[in-house]
Amino acid sequence: MTDVCKSEIDRKYKKSDRKRLRKERDNRDRKEARFRKRLWAVRNAAKYGIKAVAEIVGVSLRTVYRWIKRYREHGKEGLREKSRRPHRIHRTDKETVEKVIELRQRYGYGAEKIAIELGISPTTANRILQRAGLINSKKRKKIYRHYERKHSNSMWSMDYTMIYEDLWLFLAVDDHSRFIVAHRLMKNPNVRETMEALNEAFGKYGIPREILTDHGSQFYAVRGGVSTFDIFCFENEIKHILASVRHPQTRAAVTALNIVCRQ
User: Fold this and answer.
1) Residue 161: inside a domain, yes or no?
2) H or E segment and range at residue 35
3) Which residues span the domain enclosing 52?
């Protein structure tokens, strides 16, 4: 392999490019999922009723009515997201940039004072100073919140973990008491057995107000639309909450139990 080819491959697959491409792919997937959810809502509004559909997909009645109107006027393509990029991009002129830098270097003014002096927004002044390397843009230390409900049956956290090969453990934990309200061994994670286990738990301990899950295909409509589990929650008047992607701290209670079970 020649040096030219090698450098080209290195440039093409460098880490920053991979991150950018992954981000673009994730954005496309999220847009497609939102489109399919809108399409499902429009096509099932007559079957379930507009109010029920709005509660299932987690939007307002006005939003569903707007989707229906767009669907009638433009078909299903009218439900796709439009670009929010502005038609015109207003760039700060070179003279203003030079004045911002001069005020900073000569008098040590901050972004807000520079904005008052030059009649520009503090955001613009701050952006110019950052690009010129004249201010430190230190990242704030991230503070993790500890999620715990005050009362039992306020929220249940759920997850699966593989105990042995072809053997999975399903756990549902009450977020306040950390009590295991439901558990079941399965050959593979599936929504049918999950709902059966939950129905048994409802009979014993009552129905929670909320259920917290990850974005697993058992709980979340990966291809968009509404999942079977979403409808199950709606029928039982439970609010289904999806945890942040790649953020197990949100479901700390059930995640900790999974680690113990694997050990």
Assistant:
1) yes
2) helix 15-48
3) 15-79
